[in-house]
Amino acid sequence: GERIVSLASAEGAHHDGICGLQLDVKSGTVFTAADDGSLKAWRLSDGQLKLVASIDEAHPAAVSQLQYDADSAMIYSCGADGAIRIWKYVDVSLEMVSEVVDAHAGGVLMITREAQSGTLLSIGVDGTVTAWTLVGEVLTPIASTDETAQIGLGRAMALQFD
């Protein structure tokens, strides 16, 4: 049968569990997010993952998830702090472009972005789903479920566009 072979590794990449991972195939850049609140960018080179950019406190609490859009070089992150942040990956740096501090009460569990329209969906601990659009550098809500709807009881495990 087929074998899975490790191409590269980075020992001690984060101080806590890694909870988000995205790959930019064109550049060989790997983006990671962790429970320690950090975001990091790594370059795959000669069988090693080399750290090229890092934000230690991207979120003051755990980063729940990240999404990378290769066309715009934007990284969308969400966290247990209730925030959604947008970062621009430029050369070897991560720069915050926009943030919504109180996107969901109690934390943001997941985000996903639809590539053609640019619509971002988020699910919160508060039981709501919110649709967002980026206008200039401002992330603006365009629709949301009512908190009383309680979309999910427990923790959402997946969110995607069809």
Q: Sketch the major β-sheet.
A: 4 strands, antiparallel
How would you sum up the global shape? Answer: globular
Mean pLDDT: 83
**Pattern of helices and strands:** EEEEEEEEEEEE
Strand order of the largest sheet: 1-2-3-4
Q: What structural class is derived from the secondary structure elements?
A: mainly beta
Number of strands: 12
Approximate strand percentage? over 45%
Distance between the termini: 33 Å
Oligomer: single chain
Helices, by number, come to 0
Helix content: under 10%
Low-confidence stretches: 151-156
Tell me about this structure.
The protein starts with 17 loop residues before the first strand and ends in an 18-residue tail after the last strand. Helix content is 0%, strand content 50%. The model is unreliable at 151-156 (pLDDT under 50). The chain is an all-beta fold. It contains no helices and twelve strands. β11 and β12 (138-144) form a beta hairpin. The strands form three sheets. Strands 1-2-3-4 form a four-stranded antiparallel β-sheet, with no helix packed on it.
Task: Please supply descriptive tags for the structure shown above.
four-stranded antiparallel beta sheet, 162 residues, mainly beta, globular
Q: Secondary-structure map with pairings?
A:
Elements (H helix, E strand, L loop, with lengths): L17 E7 L4 E6 L4 E7 L2 E8 L7 E7 L4 E6 L4 E7 L2 E8 L7 E6 L6 E5 L4 E7 L2 E7 L18
Antiparallel strand pairs: 1-2, 2-3, 3-4, 5-6, 6-7, 7-8, 9-10, 10-11, 11-12
